[in-house]
């Protein structure tokens, strides 16, 4: 079934004469406009525009299609405007992407207080960057910067990746090895313990291991659970190790429910960024979300310099 946004994009290209002009009028990226157009052309089975330099000239079939859809689209847009006057305009909706654990630790507690509608999306960072660029998401929280010229990134915090364990882990024997023996003995001790991992991204463990031992871990975790917050809850049972971002388990460490085992020979830190499009209709809502993140993340001393 055809996506109505393809027709909206087609009309914008027809009216402005360029992909850039259409992108500006729709507040989406130029690659997003190109994707909509190519999808519509594939759906109808013929070219809708001839590309002459920077201009997009409608083909004869493109003119016919425009004449067929222009009036119905205008009517739909009028309906949308009238609807927005009574509902959406008063209560806008923004879409925000981040990892599941970050949402639970930061924004979840404030959702019921938001003066606007919110859609939270979870996914991998490359996917979220692509969706932001295409206008599907309005804001993302990410440790990785994209390269699209349509997106701006703002550093607001950082996370340190640390090795933590249950309160019953024998840290005294580990500290003796750290203080008196080489990294191969440290690695040997760690591999003898029970490990937790997640069903999805294992990048934190990989980064930590490569930085300290020069290679990826050559073992599989003993227990695979859904996400990092699940790992932390499991570790509160008393045993086991895991590599996690520090802000996810700060309270548990302070309460003695978990132990900070090792920060590594070199500290592994990731900068956290807000990512949003340079042109957006939801600037005030985005700033509201950013303020909540700064409020929560400001509790962590090691991020104060950002």
Structure summary:
By secondary structure, this protein is of the alpha/beta class. 46% of the residues lie in helices and 21% in strands. It is elongated and about 80 Å long.
Q: What do these coordinates show?
A:
The model is unreliable at 301-306 (pLDDT under 50). Helix 1 packs across helix 2 and helix 1 (4-16) crosses helix 4 (60-88). The protein is of the alpha/beta class and 306 residues long. Helix content is 46%, strand content 21%. The longest helix has 29 residues, at 60-88. It is elongated and about 80 Å long. The chain has helices at 4-16, 19-26, 30-44, 60-88, 100-107, 125-133, 171-180, 183-191, 203-213, 228-235, 250-254, 283-297, and strands at residues 49-52, 55-58, 93-97, 117-121, 139-142, 151-166, 196-198, 223-225, 241-245, 258-262, 268-277. The strands form three sheets. Strands 3, 4, 5, 6, 9, 10 and 11 form a seven-stranded mixed sheet that branches. The chain contains twelve helices and eleven strands.
Radius of gyration: 25 Å
Number of strands: 11
The poorly predicted ranges are: 301-306
Shape: elongated
- Report the order of strands and helices: HHHEEHEHEHEEHHEHEHEHEEH
Task: Provide a count of the helices.
Answer: 12
Strand content: 15-25%
Mean pLDDT across every amino acid position:
88
- The assigned structural class equals alpha/beta
- N-to-C terminal Cα separation, in Å? 47 Å
Strand count, sense and barrel status of the largest sheet are: 7 strands, mixed
Share of helical residues: 40-55%
Keywords: DNA-binding, Transcription, Transcription regulation
Protein name: LysR family transcriptional regulator
Domain HTH lysR-type: 2-59
Pfam families: HTH_1, LysR_substrate
């Amino acid at each position: 079934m055809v996506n109505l946004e393809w027709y909206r994009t087609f009309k914008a290209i027809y009216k402005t004469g360029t992909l850039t002009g259409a992108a500006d009028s729709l507040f989406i990226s130029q690659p997003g406009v190109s994707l909509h157009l190519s999808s519509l052309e594939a759906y109808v089975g013929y070219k809708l525009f001839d590309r002459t330099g920077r201009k997009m000239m409608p083909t004869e079939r493109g003119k016919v299609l425009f004449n067929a859809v222009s009036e119905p689209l205008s009517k739909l847009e009028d309906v949308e405007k009238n609807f927005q006057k009574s509902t959406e305009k008063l209560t806008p909706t923004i879409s925000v992407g981040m990892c599941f654990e970050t949402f639970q630790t930061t924004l979840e507690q404030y959702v019921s207080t938001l003066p606007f509608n919110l859609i939270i999306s979870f996914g991998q960072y490359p996917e979220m960057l692509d969706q932001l660029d295409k206008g599907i998401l309005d804001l993302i929280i990410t440790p990785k910067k994209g390269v699209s010229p349509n997106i701006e990134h703002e550093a607001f915090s950082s996370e340190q990746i640390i090795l933590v364990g249950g309160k019953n882990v024998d840290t005294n024997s580990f500290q003796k090895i750290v203080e008196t023996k080489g990294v191969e003995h440290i690695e040997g001790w760690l591999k003898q313990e029970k490990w937790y991992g997640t069903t999805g991204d294992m990048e934190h463990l990989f980064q930590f291991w490569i930085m300290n031992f020069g290679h990826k871990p050559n073992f599989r975790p003993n227990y695979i659970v859904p996400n990092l917050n699940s790992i932390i809850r499991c570790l509160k049972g008393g045993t086991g190790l895991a590599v996690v971002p520090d802000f996810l388990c700060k309270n548990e460490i302070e309460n003695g429910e978990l132990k900070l085992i090792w920060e590594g020979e070199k500290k592994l830190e990731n900068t956290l960024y807000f990512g949003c499009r340079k042109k957006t209709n939801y600037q005030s809502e985005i700033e509201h979300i950013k303020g909540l993140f700064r409020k929560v993340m400001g509790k962590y001393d090691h991020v104060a310099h950002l």
